[in-house]
Structures
1.
Amino acid sequence: MASLITCPHCGQRPKEEFAIKGAALARPAPDAPQGEWYDYVFLRTNPRGRYEEYWHHVSGCRRWLVVTRDTASHAVEDCRDAAERAPT
Amino acid sequence: MPDLIHRPALTKEPLVGERIRLAPMPEGTLLEVRGPQAELPALEAAADAAGLVIRTNGPDQWFAISGQPMLRLDLPDIFSVTDQSHGRVRIAMEGAAVDDVLAKGMAVDLFDFKIGAATTALIGHITTHIARLDRDRFELTVLRSFAESLWHDLETMSAEFLDR
């Protein structure tokens, strides 16, 4: 697990200050079929490599962030405020 | 109705050393303010008029603080204010060794932490708001129920600099 996260508001902070929600997925439309919602809630790819996750800076600025990290090398590629990023 | 008695959350004598001093600060007024960053000048003007000082606390978030109790802050409707006067406790920490003491328990790089800067970070396992008021003076703001625990951590962190 990446141990230092560069928060766009607070700078470099240890991972202990954050809570991790999980994969940052595109939210289906409210009237999307049940199967699509089932996948969104329960289905995860668990890739080896690049992964986008929602992290909450609980013990810092209390903003939701999107952290792009590598699950194999632990390298953090990007970290930005969730408000600035539309889910892909 | 009997008079309500104010009992401070942190009843500690100051800890004193040649290069460090820790003391609880008076529990006055502490308001948590949220609103758009662009309206900060309006907030600062209102706080100034009310006798409160503003400490930044992340994007669109501030604390308005004073040692005086029951101060009122009148703001435009675009802001929201939560009274935290009885919810948080402040601790003053000063002395030449203050950076060294804080660095033991906190991951913020104090070399780049300028006078007037403020942020929230973990000290040990306790979320604490820290503000540098001067080169060698910090104000730590912590949730009331964590105040004694934080004090204990700070005491341990300062131990090598204390006169005893």
Note: Chain B touches chain A at residues 57-59, 61, 107-109, 112, 119-122, 125, 127 (CB under 8 Å).
2.
Amino acid sequence: MRTVRVIPCLDVDEGRVKKGVQFLDLVDAGDPVELALRYDSEGADEVVFLDITASSERRSIMVDVVARAADMLFIPLTVGGGIRTLEDAKGILRAGADKVTVNTAGISRPVLISEIAGELGSQCVVVAVDARRSPWGWEVYTHGGRNPTGMDVLEWVDRAVELGAGELLVTSMDKDGTKEGFDLELTSEITSRVDIPVIASGGVGSLEHFAQGALEGGADGLLAASVFHRKEISIGEVKAYLSARGITVRPA
Amino acid sequence: MIAVVDYGIGNLRSAEKALVKVGGDARLVANPQDILTAQGVVLPGVGAFGGCARALEASGLRDAVLKVIEAGTPFLGICVGYQLLYENSEEDSGIEGLGILSGRVKKLAGDVKLPQMQWNELRRVPGKESAMLDGIGASPWVYFVHSYAPDPVPHLDNVVAVCDYGEEVAAAIEKDNVWATQFHPEKSGAFGLAVLSRFVERCRA
């Protein structure tokens, strides 16, 4: 039985959540751990922390955030952003994360994916792919979607699987922030060609968008940020809706 | 004290913290004496069967783990720590498990994505009592991350719960003092914490 996961994503900058979080009843709405616990209590299946800290010296803050989360959060935690080396990945996993996402560094040095998979297992390596439509398909972007690489997304995901990725996190840069829904064509192209779980990301604005991601996109995980942070949609609502559409979810 | 066996693999902190959360005096332990004197022993495991089996051997803790299991100390194996209880695994042929339980670990069959990296619903095996699972009120959804599992369920003794993933998967076993789960109780929210709480109570008894 395939169960679809609903995954809130928190952008964390120097240990603080930055994107318009509107949980006024939280003691500290900027604390990623407190927000993660809130999402856990609402039925989130997993939480993603994405470290967007610009300064590399300040990135060690994330290890402390993860360690605090590990004291209190008892659902899977995935952490990405700034993972450059095997040692970075180990530090985050030792602090209590279950998976790390590798993006830019995996492109400049693909063997990093194999190194982490070889040492710690494929199950903890999520390869994050930022994709943008181009005249010839979808192009891989790095550095938070700023830099084009000239690489074809579909070729890159095949390679990532060969290198030992255990999961893919696919973000459509075209759809991200638009609230028009996932790029379903991109998602289904990828889910139909790889045998590992795929998380769709970018563009969710309605309950139906979540259902489309699972039904038309074939995604195993549905990731969203702003609709949850702004309290436009609750995780419980998503799960009830998916369930009503015949998609198996863990009840909230 | 509950010893969480620290044999140099992945994320052990989660298991330790979850046991602490439910009132257990859990500690990561890396020397045999602390395992032998513990009131309960937890063997986690992530990654590959062979890697974990070799790491356990290299850590010098394998004999201590075998001894406490034989001595009747409450024991909990998690994920690959569960698989290691069997004789061997298709994942890494030629590497021996602990051989506490008879059977072999095999790749999940059926038309499914591997790993199973998702929540799934536990189904109890009819007629099997379980000190670990009986009467837990929370919804029995638990988190799995695995591509392999012990032999097809009908050939196994001691299975108390299964899940469906392409085939029936042996999700939890109990044999005397040995409890083990293919799922991750430390990552399974309220239900998982309730399972760990049962284990902590048992260690106190």
Note: The mean pLDDT of chain B is 94.
